[in-house]
Every structure is written in C-alpha cells, then in structure tokens.
Input
Amino acid sequence: MFERYSNEIIKLDSFEKQDLLTETFELYHNGHLKIYYSPHNEIINDKAKILIVGITPGWTQTRIAYQIARDGLRNHLELEEIKKQCKRNSRFAGSMRRNLIEMLDELRLNEKLQLNSCGELFADKDYLLHTTSVIPYPVFINQKNYTGAHPKITEDEVLYRLFRKYFYKEAGSLPDALIIPLGKSVQELLLQMIRENLMKEEQCLLGFPHPSGANGHRKRQFQENKNQLSEKIEQYFHHHGIT
Output
C-alpha cells in the first residue's frame, strides 16, 4: 500500500502522534481500537534464516518508518529501496533491539550464524534476518501500543482476519527459518499454527521473553528458559546441517 499513501507521506513535516495517527492513515477503527498504515512491513526477505515476530509495530517503529519514507521520497529514491530502508531502520528500534541482541548473543545464536554479535543481523548481515509482526500494521488502544491481550487477536474478527491474511502468507514464504516469537501473545498464535501443521514446533523458539523494557519479568523469564532455548537452537542448526 506504499504507493497509495506516498503522496501523503511526502507532505509530512512533523512526526508526532497528531501527525500520523490521523484519519488520513487510518485503516480501521472500532471504539478505542484503531489500526493505521505504516510503511515498514512492505517487503519479505524470503532468503532469511531467522524470523523474529512481534505482535504489532509500536509507536517508535511507526514514527521512524514514516521519517525514513518521507526522506526517501523527497530524495527520489526507488520505492523498493525506500521500503528496505524503512524496514532496516525501524525494526525493534530502541532499547527493545538492544535487549533482543543481548539475549540472542547469550544464547550464542551469533556463533551458529558465524557472527561476532547478533547486532550484525540489524546491520550488514541483515540478509540473514526477516522481522515482522502477526498484525502488519500499528494497532493502538486509546493511542497506546496494543499488547495483544485486550482483546486477544483470536477474539477480534478484524485482527484475526489480518493475522490469517498476512502472517500465514509471510510465515509460509520462510518454511525453514528459525522463528523467534516475542512474548506470550505471539507464542499462542504460533502454537495455533503448529496445531494446524503450518509450522514445526522444533523451528520455534518457544519461551523467549518479550524484549521490551516494560517487561519487568524479562530477565527472570530468560534465565528460567535459557537452557531449553539454547538446546532448541542447537537442535535446529544440527538438523539443518549448519553445524
């Protein structure tokens, strides 16, 4: 949908909520729940070995994606290049990315990928990585980031339809990737797909904590699950003949 919104994006001079969470970019609303367009889930890297899945793009990601898109349009970059830059610069931006890299390195995923650090997945080795959300567009409840809990995606007709329409296709294009779900809400949806034989449990890093700084239980959850997560990574790479 990037082409549809590009004429509006190029006009932007400010990137606050009052500039972006507007009727211009609104895709759907139902009471306090609103869904908006954002330009950073427009491409799929179907060559990736690692697939990291969030619940929905948050406000920080959304704002960065719009800034990158506006600058790219004003600089007359190719549309495909703008889409790549939006993805590259916005995904899990901020403290969430730092926490994510820290946990993945502690699990020694970097060694399996022959990297010094998983930080390289977000830089020059990003051809190994695809990131996405089970809902491809930002969802807000009272203009706050939707967490996947109230309502659950499976209990909301529109959210559930978006999940099945977009994420099923995206996951299907990466049938052998190691999938890292961020948090319980995403994990529950992956378990549903496992039951439907749409992905394999051995490729999913179940029990991986959400890396948000707002997750006060993150470090405890990680330490509790660290051994089984490390073993899952070991088995995955052994099965795929990479180590």
In short: The longest strand covers residues 26-30.
